[in-house]
Amino acid sequence: MPSMVVLATTAVPDHLRGALSRWTTEVVPGIFVGSVSARVRDELWTQVTAVVGDGQAVLIHPAPTEQGYALRTAGTRRRIPVDFDGLTLIKMTGAIQPTRAKKTQRA
Fold first, then answer.
1. Which candidate in 1, 6, 13, 91 could, as Cys together with 60 as Cys, close a disulfide (CB 3.0–4.6 Å)?
2. Predicted TM-score of the model (pTM)
């Protein structure tokens, strides 16, 4: 039975956006919404995770949880879903800071 899915992408290859648009509607750049079966949803997610590269993607779909949905993430991201007693919360990580070279002392 088809169910609604939302897939949000950032900095993914154009060919992936084209593949997603065959099954869903890109309502705004990078946000895809559609009604697909669980099998199609899982196949789409497999394609996303295979080519996401340095981009990022989040899939939201109905699930028998307290919140009524499940989250899947792929790629480089600052927001990480964490299970907290059956609820999915989002953990924010710090921004990546460039490393500084240590100064050497002269004798």
1. 6
2. 0.81
